[in-house]
Amino acid sequence: MSDEMVQLLTPEGRRIDHDRFHCEASVDDLRTWLRDMVLARRFDTEATALQRHGELGLWPPVLGQEAAQVASARALGDLDVVFPTYREHAALITLGLPWTQVLALFRGSDSGAWEGLERFKNYQIIIGAQTLHATGYAMGLQLDGLVGNTESPNAAAIAYHGDGASSQGDVNEAYVFAASYNAPVVFFCQNNQWAISEPIALQSRIPLYQRAHGFGFPGIRVDGNDVLAVHAVTRWALDRAHRGDGPTFIEAFTYRMGAHTTSDDPTKYRADEETRSWAGRDPIARLTAHLRQEGAIDDAWLAALDEESRQFGVEIRAAIPTLQDLTFDELFDNVHAENTVALETQRREYADWVAQEEA
C-alpha cells in the first residue's frame, strides 16, 4: 500500500497503525458495520436480479463499494446531510432510510417525494449536479449559524460522486464555490477506477485527491475497502467542516466489481485479471477476517447474519408488488412547494386532454 493512501486494516484483516488517523470504533461498532455491508450487498444483489426479471427498468450496482459508503455514513453527525449520486444504496440502508424508495425510483413508480429528505436528499441522475446542491446547502448552514459553534451542534454536507464526475464542469464549479466561501462540505469521491468504460488512467494525469490542492482545500486518499480508515478520514473531514475550516476532498480508492449499470457490459472494456485482483480486497471479507482474528464473531454469528440477509431478500422481492404507480396528474404536486400559475395551467390542460381522450 502506498504511503500516500490511508489504511488501517490490511486486505488480510490485520490492524495497522497510522501516524495521523485512528479509528476508535468498538467491537460492537465493527460488527454493526459488517452487518450494514452484508445487508447492503443483499439489497444490491436482489435489485440486480429484479432488473433482470423486468421488475426494474435499470439498476446501478454498488458491489465492491460497500465499505466506502457504510463507513462514511456511520461517521455522519446528527445534523449532517447527504447529497448522493444514484449509487448510494449502502449509505441509505446504513442510515435506516426506506429502501423501497430506491426500488420505486428505478421501477418508474416514484416522483421524488421521499421520506427522510432532511437527512438524505434524492438520488441525482445528472452526473455531478449534487455537488452544487451540497455546496449551496453548506453555504446556507453558515448563514444559519450552524458552523463553528463551540457549545452547540454543528452541521455539514457530504456530496458523494464518482471519479468520472470529477471531470465535470458542474463539479469543478462546486469546488470553486466551496473554497471561495469556505463552505462546510465534504466531497466524497468514490474512485471505483472506471467512469463507465474509461479507466482512471485516462481521466487524470495525477491522483484525484491532489486536484483539491489546486482549488485551495485539503485532499486525501483513503483505502476505500477499509471501513476503519474510511470512517477515520471521513470523521476528520466532517470535524473540519463543523469547526468552520471549510471543505475537504476525500478520494476513496475502491473498485466497481460489477457493471456501471445493468445496461452495461464491463467485459467489453475491462480485463478479467483486474477484476480478480480486486476480488482479493473485498471489504466484507476483510472485516470478517479481522473480527474472526479478534474472536469477535464465529460461525454461529455469521450463520445468523446470513439468515437475516436471506430474510431481507424475501422482503425486498415481496415489496415490488406493493409499489404503486403515480398518476401523471399527481406528478404536478411534487414540483414546487406551492404550484405556480404556469404549472396549474399545464395541469388543467392535461386534465382537458385526458377528458377528450376518454370521451
TrEMBL record:
One Pfam family it belongs to: E1_dh
The UniProt record lists the keyword Oxidoreductase: yes
Taxonomic placement: Bacteria, Bacillati, Actinomycetota, Actinomycetes, Propionibacteriales
Catalysed reaction, written as an equation: N(6)-[(R)-lipoyl]-L-lysyl-[protein] + 3-methyl-2-oxobutanoate + H(+) = N(6)-[(R)-S(8)-2-methylpropanoyldihydrolipoyl]-L-lysyl-[protein] + CO2
InterPro entries, sorted: Alpha-ketoacid_DH_E1_comp, DH_E1, THDP-binding
GO biological process assignments: branched-chain amino acid catabolic process
Record's keyword terms, sorted: Oxidoreductase, Thiamine pyrophosphate
Enzyme class: oxidoreductase
Presence of the UniProt keyword Iron-sulfur in the record: no
UniProt organism field: Arachnia propionica
Name of the protein in question: 2-oxoisovalerate dehydrogenase subunit alpha
Occurrences of domain Dehydrogenase E1 component (ranges): 36-311
PANTHER family named among the record's database cross-references: 2-OXOISOVALERATE DEHYDROGENASE SUBUNIT ALPHA, MITOCHONDRIAL (PTHR43380:SF1)
Function comment: The branched-chain alpha-keto dehydrogenase complex catalyzes the overall conversion of alpha-keto acids to acyl-CoA and CO(2). It contains multiple copies of three enzymatic components: branched-chain alpha-keto acid decarboxylase (E1), lipoamide acyltransferase (E2) and lipoamide dehydrogenase (E3).
Family: Belongs to the BCKDHA family.
SUPFAM superfamilies: Thiamin diphosphate-binding fold (THDP-binding)
Cofactor(s) for this UniProt protein: thiamine diphosphate
Enzyme nomenclature, EC number: 1.2.4.4
GO molecular function, one term: branched-chain 2-oxo acid dehydrogenase activity
